[in-house]
Amino acid sequence: MHFSSQAHSLTHTSAMASTLSILSFCSLLVLALVLVQSTHSAIIPEPKNSIAKHTTPHPSSSHLTYIVQTNHLAKPSKFTTLDHWYTSMVPTTSSRILYTYGTVIHGFAARLTDGEARRMSSVPGVTRVYKDRVYHTQTTRSPWFMGLHDDFGAWPDTDFGDGIIIGIVDTGIWPERASFNDTGLGPVRSTWRGKCVDAEGFNATLLCNNKLVGAKSFTVNLTVPECDDPSPRDYVGHGTHVASTAAGAEVPSADLYGFSGGRASGVARNARIAMYKVCVPDARIGCPGSALIAAIDAAVSDGVDLISISIGGDADDPFYDDPIAVATFGADRRGVFVVLAGGNSGPMASTVSNVAPWMTTVGAATTDRVFPAKLRLGNGVTLTGQSLYTMKSKGTSVVRLVSSSCLKDDLTPDKVMGKVVVCTLMAGAGTGFYVERAGGAGMVSQQWMDRFHDAVMAATFALPGVMISDTAGKKLDAYMSSTPYPVASFDFACETVTGENRAPMVAGFSSRGPSVLAPEILKPDVVAPGVNILGAWSGGMPPSSADVDPRRVEFNIVSGTSMACPHVAGAAALIKKRHGDWSPAMVRSALITTAGPLDKNGRNIVDSGTFVDGAPMDATPLAAGAGLVLPRLAMDPGLVYDARTEDYVDFLCTLNYTAEQMRQFAPEMSTGCGARTIPGGAANLNYPSFVVVFDRTNDGVRTLTRTVKAVSTRPETYNVTFAAPEGVAVTITPTTLEFKRKDQSRSYTVQFSILGKVRPPGTWDFGHISWENRKHRVRSPVAFNWQI
Ligand SMILES: *[C@@H]1O[C@H](CO)[C@@H](O)[C@H](O)[C@H]1NC(C)=O
Ligand SMILES: *[C@@H]1O[C@H](CO)[C@@H](O)[C@H](O)[C@H]1NC(C)=O
Ligand SMILES: *[C@@H]1O[C@H](CO)[C@@H](O)[C@H](O)[C@H]1NC(C)=O
Ligand SMILES: *[C@@H]1O[C@H](CO)[C@@H](O)[C@H](O)[C@H]1NC(C)=O
Ligand SMILES: *[C@@H]1O[C@H](CO)[C@@H](O)[C@H](O)[C@H]1NC(C)=O
User: 5-19, 304-318, 614-628: lowest mean pLDDT where?
Assistant: First the structure.
């Protein structure tokens, strides 16, 4: 979910919620959901204990939700339908079946006791029974920043993605927002099978239109019944924001309190939106895997062209234990492209999630917009941070600074009255309300634990406040410890400064490779704008996402890989419009091989989470993938690396999956993999990027093969170029590829070998391979890993 400063304030506010009723607590927990998603659980204490204190015990705690995957091909003939068969399996009453799946997987979810689940797993025809699990949700100038132009290129060429249907699996939608106005759009295509479902407070006839063509909630029958929500309405803001980023209509004038003002547009502004709501406020439930499968199943069966999922789990859940991986495999098999957020657990290595090769995995980058605000210290030093302070004043007088944890108990009038509070724990705009309540004059919050550095996420402070970088925080600390009476004043410019910062930079919080599950598949694939993104917002959630905040806004500015993901969904919609017959892998290949590794000034994209001597390092492909998605180039990639279901089956076999595990993905594989595998290992999957591991088994020589397919109508010849780290020899055969016509495929092999000195085990290094001619450049990042 949005990795914003406001998220962190939630820790504090949820701890204060002792007197709330269960229902309002349920909605407050939305915030906890933000928090949990947006932080690394190993570092930030999860608010689980405080939640448990305030909720009633589980009504039927002996029953848990289980996902039962069946082999529909093995249905006993005495049952006429799959439903009959499933009902027969569930003890006592069929009413405990929560979801039935029939498109991306077969099976159902049901509330079962441990014993029932165990017995059911040995029923003939049942592939796997496993416990449900919890997932969490992980402008606007950003489309223009990605190089889109109103008058030429990808936008007019595709009629802005008109008619493409994007399925969004998220927290729901606030349909009244201007981004979902369908003026000028024709009817949805007649083959569309999705619909908007009426619910209390959601009159589908009134609220759905030619923009919002589907809306359904899968958040019913949850383990905490008070949180059941049959309405697709979004009370969180996340889903509304994501939907407007992918396919929001053009809004001539949008802003948040004057910030980021201007024309707003989704990346595919004429594409249509189908919302599948899967997340609920209670953090223990979050976005249940059982609901995620149901939503993906429904989206594919409704006929969406692609699916955007800004939700993630742990980086180390095996694919067979991960309902998102299992369900999206089925979506890919049906030709549906899926794009997912890579997670907000950076900048530590091996944190990226949603890493299956049939997924397109997106990291977050900054854009060229900042919201500067100044803190002038008593020693004459001025610190510049960012603020979305709503401007009751242009500045403040000089007042005392006081340091505080900014937890509620520490924000007492005797401590903070008339002072500016410097929070030692990261706190957001929500905390500002407690500072104000205790008479505080303002607050300063720091980006947290060296993770964000200078790519500051701005917060919607309602009192004078600023978010400062880690570097600025160190200067502030030094000043505060140098004098017994530290003082400062604020200076708010109240402006949105465009084009003066270095951009894009990889956001510090963006999760990093290598992938734990499949280290030989380079992830994330690409980055897209995900810091301080303006998008439509829910009328049920304040801009700070804090319960104490009475404000409501039409647009909000938030950050996260959740915000980056729908930018790529929009780009994919434009590609699908132009190339309706492309497989999901071809779309992904186009996005990867045309992505930009350079920033707007032609320098390498830097990593705002990795500093050496105060300067950001160049972002590696483990942080940035192939670089920033550039839709205008992705429309015409020249060559693509294709892969189909059989290739992913081979890939899973290469991971040594058992027959049972394989059947979860491919029910027809009754006897398992046998001799199936990718010769040479997972690195030989026909993926548009490379990971080269030098280890003892290959003696420092690795030979990989790839096949590229021409997608241009004209005959073309390509020459290869490459870059490799010192000490690695690269031999590519052949060095020229000739294509006489569209759809022709050509293979090449690359031999990578270590020359001379071996690097220390665990070292990573990087290069690229690029097939080029005057018209096209088909570039693949290469990551080298020494394990020898
Ligand atoms: C699920 O919830 C609906 C109401 O939203 C209810 O009618 C139905 O009986 C519930 N199903 C189960 C299995 O509890
Ligand atoms: C949709 O946009 C049109 C054109 O800008 C405007 O006239 C109309 O009032 C809008 N509809 C809604 C429901 O806001
Ligand atoms: C939804 O709105 C339509 C049009 O105003 C109205 O006819 C219908 O009765 C409403 N449906 C519900 C369930 O309120
Ligand atoms: C799969 O098994 C083979 C043979 O035992 C082994 O060499 C290989 O390392 C295994 N692969 C993985 C990913 O565990
Ligand atoms: C490929 O390289 C050869 C030799 O340098 C050159 O003659 C040819 O024009 C190049 N072709 C393309 C498509 O760049």
Answer: 5-19
Indicate which residue of 12, 106, 136, 238 is catalytic.
238
Q: Determine contact, residues 431/453, Cβ cutoff 8 Å.
A: no
Partner residues linked to 77 by β-bridges: none
Any atom of ligand 2 within 6 Å of the Cβ of 181 = yes
CB of 407 closer than 8 Å to CB of 12 = yes
Mean of the pLDDT values across residues 206-210? Answer: 97
Task: Report how far residue 615's alpha carbon sits from residue 627's, in angstroms, rounded to the nearest whole number.
Answer: 20
Beta bridge partners of 307: 167, 338
Range 252-258 contact pairs with CB under 8 angstroms and sequence separation of 24 or more: 254/140, 254/178, 254/534, 254/554, 254/555, 255/534, 255/555, 256/388, 256/460, 256/534, 256/543, 256/553, 256/555, 256/556, 256/557, 257/388, 257/390, 257/391, 257/460, 257/553, 258/391, 258/494
Spacing, Cα 130 to ligand 1 middle (Å): 22
Helix 289-302 / helix 323-333 crossing angle, nearest 10 deg = 10
Lowest-confidence region among 271-275, 670-674, 715-719? 670-674
Query: pTM value?
Result: 0.90
**DSSP per-residue string spanning 73-131:** GG--TT-SSHHHHHHHHSSS-GGGEEEEE-SSS-EEEEEE-HHHHHHHTTSTTEEEEEE
pLDDT above 70 covers what percent of the chain? 90
Whole-number CA gyration radius for the chain: 26
Coil, helix or strand at residue 622 = helix
The tokens describing 264, both together, are 């707003």
Phi first, then psi: give them for residue 653, nearest 5 degrees. Answer: -65, -35
Which of the four pLDDT bands, split at 50, 70 and 90, describes residue 36?
very low
Residue nearest to atom 4 of ligand 3 (CA): 206
Our answer on whether the CB atom of 655 is closer than 6 Å to any ligand 4 atom is: yes
User: Six-digit token pair at 301?
Assistant: 């069966």
Please indicate whether residue 62 is annotated as part of the active site. no
Distances (CA, A) of 236 to 29, 428, 519, 551, 733: 10, 17, 34, 14, 53
The answer to whether 334 and 342 have CB atoms below 8 angstroms apart is: no
Residue 193 Cα to ligand 3 midpoint, Å, equals 21
Q: Which of 685, 576, 692, 557 is nearest to 631 (CA)?
A: 576
For residue 655, which atom of ligand 4 is closest to its CA? 13
| Contact call for residues 339 and 360 (beta carbons, < 8 A) | yes
How is the beta sheet containing 639-640 ordered, strand by strand? 639-640, 701-710, 745-754, 728-733
CA 432 to chain centre: 28
Contact 221 CB / ligand 1 (< 6 Å): yes
Helix (H, G, I), strand (E, B) or coil at 11: helix
The Cα 302–Cα 216 span in angstroms is 11
Length of the chain: 788
Q: Which one from 265, 511, 515, 562 is the annotated catalytic residue?
A: 562
Mean pLDDT, residues 55-82 taken together: 78
Decide if 514 contacts 693 (C-beta within 8 A).
no
Burial track 296-310 (b if 16+ CB lie within 10 A, e otherwise): bbbbbebbbbbbbbb
pLDDT at 142: 76
- pLDDT tens-digit readout, 445-494: 986 544 445 557 888 999 999 998 888 888 999 999 999 999 999 998 87
Q: Report the mean per-residue pLDDT for the chain.
A: 87
Question: Tokens standing for 752?
Answer: 């990578």
Check: CB of residue 305 under 8 Å from CB of residue 573.
yes
Q: Are 651 and 631 in contact (CB under 8 A)?
A: no
- Residues 648-670 pLDDT 10s: 999 999 999 999 999 999 998 88
Assigned token pair, 9 = 């304030």
Q: Which of 176, 200, 203 to mutate to test the pocket of ligand 3 (most atoms within 8 A of CB)?
A: 203
Q: Which ligand is nearest to the CA of 770?
A: 5
Q: State yes or no: pLDDT of 545 exceeds 90.
A: no
- Catalytic, 170? Answer yes
More confident residue, 124 or 457: 124
